Amino acid sequence: MNSNHVDNNGDGAKRYLDGLGNHVMCPEDNRAGVNRTGITRFRAHLTVSILCLVNLLNYMDRFTVAGVLPDVMTYYGIENSEGGLLQTVFVCSYMVFAPIFGYLGDRYSRKAIMAVGVLFWSVTTLTGSFVPASHFSVFLLCRGLVGIGEASYSTIAPTIIADLFLASDRTTMLTVFYFAIPVGSGLGYIVGSSVATLMGSWHWALRVTPVMGAVCVVLVLLVMKDPPRGASEGGEKLKPTDWIVDIIELLRKYD
User: Fold this and answer.
1) How many CA atoms lie within 13 A of 164 on its CB side?
2) Can you give the pTM of this predicted structure?
3) Model confidence band, residue 232 (pLDDT cutoffs 50, 70, 90)
4) Cα–Cα dist 148/170, whole Å
5) DSSP-assigned letter for residue 205
6) How far apart are CA 38 and CA 164, in angstroms?
7) Is 134 exposed, middle or buried (CB count within 10 Å of its CB: 0-12, 13-18, 19+)?
8) Which has more pLDDT, 36 or 168?
9) Dmax over Cα atoms in the chain, in whole Å?
10) Alpha helices in 77-225 (DSSP H)
């Protein structure tokens, strides 16, 4: 492959001819991969920082209820089985909608989908903090809706990082991104219970992440960069395949 390297765009990026005769950027050309997106390295790292912040908030919000669960159960007068439903409903809605948002993320604006998703789970989390004691089913519904909002973000954010970086840089950035999972989960417990104790009510624990989520929506829309799909690999004007084709290709991997 090295003997066929060419620079057909004059941008210093090494490319080679694939089996179809297309000029494809070499995977190891890491720096060129970022330049190829038209986004500076500074803005690329800034974008990852924003994505990590939102991911941190995602998991903080997810585990805040767990940190104040005894207070929630007392407030609504529910048993352990009903308290467990709060996380079950969240996980089920997340599981159902994650593939849907993955499909949409390959075809429409990833920035818009993420911004709407973050705003959605922020609003539903905040709404849940105002549900009266006589309407536990409404609070349960709110937690399910939060799962939908978070699914829209978690399935799309890694693809943006993949389109910004190559090789070891991509691995490093994804490592930092996913490191927010244990950190955010722990902060959810700590911040949620601490705020509830400080304010004298568990409701306030659910009002922290929505405020920060609103800030993140602004950052996603105005600061974050959404690179062209496949740009870091040298792809140009890529088009999504039909979903049936995607399913067939996935099944072939298990043959």
Assistant:
1) 27
2) 0.78
3) low
4) 27
5) G
6) 10
7) exposed
8) 168
9) 73
10) 80-105, 110-128, 136-154, 157-164, 167-199, 208-222
